[in-house]
Amino acid sequence: QVQLVESGGGLVQAGGSLRLSCAASGRTFSSYAMGWFRRAPGKEREFVAAIGRSGGSTYYADSVKGRFTISRDNAKNTVYLQMNSLKPEDTAVYYCAASTQATISTLDYNDWGQGTQVTVSS
User: Of 97, 101, 92, nearest to 38 (Cα)?
Assistant: First the structure.
């Protein structure tokens, strides 16, 4: 398994930006595809974005496409989620997760971080 620690969450006004980071340890980072998921109050965990092991393939939920960007730096064992034009409905706990393949399903991810809170005020 790989240990994942998210950071970068916080409180931001609508229209603002945040960059989340997920630091990985325990195995070679490049062995994992990575994903970002979120769980909003009263909702189930949902897919946000995913990136392949080498960063060549990315996938986004329709709700964040054009606003969020997932990236990774394998030399730093870190995956990022740049969030721009934030909306109140983006408020959620954001989780990074590791898988053998970049998919949109939570079931395909074996290792999860503890989550970081993102709150977008109106």
Answer: 92
Tens-digit pLDDT profile for residues 66-107: 999 999 999 999 999 999 999 999 999 999 999 998 899 999
Task: Concatenate the DSSP letters of all residues of 5-57 into one string.
Answer: EEE--EEEETT--EEEEEEEESS-GGG-EEEEEEE-TTS--EEEEEE-TTS--
Q: Of the candidates 76, 45, 70, 40, which has an alpha carbon nearest to the alpha carbon of residue 58?
A: 70
Number of residues written out for the chain: 122
Model confidence pLDDT, tens digit, residues 39-60 = 999 999 999 999 999 999 999 9
- The DSSP bridge partners found for residue 72 are 79
